Amino acid sequence: MCKVKVITGTSAAAEAAKLADVDVIAAYPITPQTTCVEKLAEFVANGELDAEFIKVESEHSAMSACIGASATGARTFTATASQGLALMHEMLFIAAGMRLPIVMMNANRALSAPINIWNDQQDSISQRDTGWIQFYVEDNQETLDTILQAYRIGEHEDVLLPVMVNLDGFILTHTVEPVTIPSEENAKAFVGVYEPKHAYLDPDRPITQGCVGVPECYMETRYAVEKAMENAKKVIKEIHDEFAEKFKRSYGNGLIEEYNMENADTVIVAMGSVCGTIKEVIDRLKEKGKEVGLLRVRCYRPFPAEDIAKALKDAENIAVLDKNISLGINKGALYLDLASTVRDKKVVNYIVGLGGRDIRIEDIEKIISHVEVAKDGETAWIGLKE
Prior knowledge:
It is a single chain. The chain is of the alpha/beta class. It has two domains: 3-247, Thiamin diphosphate (ThDP)-binding fold, Pyr/PP domains (Rossmann fold, 3-Layer(aba) Sandwich), CATH 3.40.50; 256-381, Rossmann fold (3-Layer(aba) Sandwich), CATH 3.40.50.920. Helix content is 40%, strand content 19%. It contains 13 helices and 15 strands. The chain has helices spanning 9-19, 34-45, 59-71, 82-87, 89-97, 122-125, 140-155, 184-191, 215-247, 274-287, 305-311, 333-341, 361-371, and strands spanning 3-7, 24-27, 52-55, 76-80, 103-108, 133-136, 163-168, 177-181, 256-259, 266-270, 292-297, 299-301, 317-322, 346-351, 379-381. The strands form three sheets. A seven-stranded mixed beta sheet has the order 3-2-4-5-7-6-12, sandwiched between helices. A six-stranded mixed beta sheet has the order 9-11-10-13-14-15, with helices on both faces. Strands 1-8 form a two-stranded antiparallel ribbon. The longest helix has 33 residues, at 215-247. The radius of gyration is 20 Å and the shape is globular. The model has no long low-confidence stretch (mean pLDDT 96). Residues 15-240 form the Pyruvate flavodoxin/ferredoxin oxidoreductase pyrimidine binding domain.
């Protein structure tokens, strides 16, 4: 039987890792992620989870330990945030290049300087080209559900890539919500036992891992990761649908979620917890007879270009909200990817919530009014002090 707990986002992530029956956890504390690995350490210490908990000296070491463990065929988990994720940068490429299905929870937090512990999504967006699948969740329930799905996705023989599940720091990590937790029996039946598709570090079937990639072979390895990313789109949909059938909870088609899109000429595109605020505004406007839609991008890498283009085919005004900024071009990453996909529409970029700046209902209403009169390709910083 499932049970309902009122817990934080980090606790939901820890519960998911426990349900996935991970073998190895390697982690280093960093705000606002720390409470996740503290909870996992508690599970291990009191015997609720039979796993090796490796205390390391840095986030770089945490990912290195996960890579070593995953290379032996162990199911691994780690968590980090902000500067910690940045410190892992070198090892993130290695995890993906070695095709290791590590799952990591990242508590989205602004990057320094100046030092800032509050939320935006610059940390994970800065890692978008490392070869990691990236999910952005809206609430704590989705955090748990997505981590369970992440193991199935990453370990799928057509994918074999690491997966990063991103949740907004403090907004989700430290806010309590009711979360339905599946029974261990049902969760384990869904996730399954990890059976490595390669004989990782098996002395009876020796292979070389992490060797030199000379020019004659390196390009092919990068192409293989790209093909795996493309394969992941189908796999994500299939596993999401299987999860929805089993647990009666769904998130669009697994890649994107559409909200009130049927009759909407104006559509907001966004990722993460801000989508809850946007839905509230949409509902209020609907009561007044104004139709506005939301397209929530749940999976950012691989980028679901085909699904996004189909969802936006009837939209006239598209407002893309970015909690990040690509400095030097004055655009956010989500906008840049979407604009390259949707070429015959008016698309306007809104930079919001950097460093934890509040995104208020009034801000969303202002964006909706602005996009209807703005020019294609404009960028507006919302909430910027003059």
